[in-house]
From TrEMBL:
<comment type="similarity">
    <text>Belongs to the GpsB family.</text>
</comment>
<feature type="compositionally biased region" description="Polar residues">
    <location>
        <begin position="69"/>
        <end position="97"/>
    </location>
</feature>
<keyword id="KW-0175">Coiled coil</keyword>
<comment type="function">
    <text>Divisome component that associates with the complex late in its assembly, after the Z-ring is formed, and is dependent on DivIC and PBP2B for its recruitment to the divisome. Together with EzrA, is a key component of the system that regulates PBP1 localization during cell cycle progression. Its main role could be the removal of PBP1 from the cell pole after pole maturation is completed. Also contributes to the recruitment of PBP1 to the division complex. Not essential for septum formation.</text>
</comment>
<dbReference type="InterPro" id="IPR011229">
    <property type="entry name" value="Cell_cycle_GpsB"/>
</dbReference>
<dbReference type="Pfam" id="PF05103">
    <property type="entry name" value="DivIVA"/>
</dbReference>
<dbReference type="GO" id="GO:0005737">
    <property type="term" value="C:cytoplasm"/>
</dbReference>
<keyword id="KW-0963">Cytoplasm</keyword>
<comment type="subunit">
    <text>Forms polymers through the coiled coil domains. Interacts with PBP1, MreC and EzrA.</text>
</comment>
<feature type="region of interest" description="Disordered">
    <location>
        <begin position="69"/>
        <end position="99"/>
    </location>
</feature>
<dbReference type="InterPro" id="IPR007793">
    <property type="entry name" value="DivIVA_fam"/>
</dbReference>
<dbReference type="GO" id="GO:0008360">
    <property type="term" value="P:regulation of cell shape"/>
</dbReference>
<keyword id="KW-0132">Cell division</keyword>
<dbReference type="GO" id="GO:0051301">
    <property type="term" value="P:cell division"/>
</dbReference>
<dbReference type="InterPro" id="IPR019933">
    <property type="entry name" value="DivIVA_domain"/>
</dbReference>
<keyword id="KW-0131">Cell cycle</keyword>
<protein>
    <recommendedName>
        <fullName>Cell cycle protein GpsB</fullName>
    </recommendedName>
</protein>
């Protein structure tokens, strides 16, 4: 708003000198009235956008705080040792299907233990 030369009030109160072959004062007044309306509309829109911008900045700050809090809290893991928790929170981008199958097989052995040992079919083990 620092670069604005005239406010709607300045435009309204501006008086022009009349000369012999000048413009029609009614046309000039009508045109200036339209300019005043535009200025008022622009000021209103500017205020609305400034308010919205502030609201969105506050919302972004709140969301950033939520992301920061959630990234510092460990993921809930039931029955997993603390050494496994750090591994589980890291991305497994390099894990292959074989790695996943081995882990699944080990997990099944731990969970179902004796039930799997009683069955003679070992085809599921890797």
């Amino acid at each position: 708003m620092e670069n604005i030369n005239y406010t709607p009030k300045d435009i309204l109160q501006k008086e022009f000198r009349q000369k012999m072959r000048g413009y029609d004062p009614n046309d000039v007044d009508s045109f200036l009235d339209n300019i005043i309306k535009d200025y008022e509309t622009f000021n209103k829109q500017l205020q609305e956008l400034s308010d919205e911008n502030e609201r969105l900045k506050v919302q972004v700050d709140e969301l950033n705080k939520q992301v920061a809090v959630s990234s510092t809290q460990p993921l809930p893991t039931a029955g997993v040792s603390p050494s496994r928790t750090t591994t589980a929170s890291q991305p497994m981008s390099s894990a292959t299907n074989m790695d996943i199958l081995k882990r699944l097989s080990n997990l099944e052995r731990r969970v179902f233990g004796s039930q799997l040992d009683n069955n003679s079919n070992d085809s599921h083990r890797l």
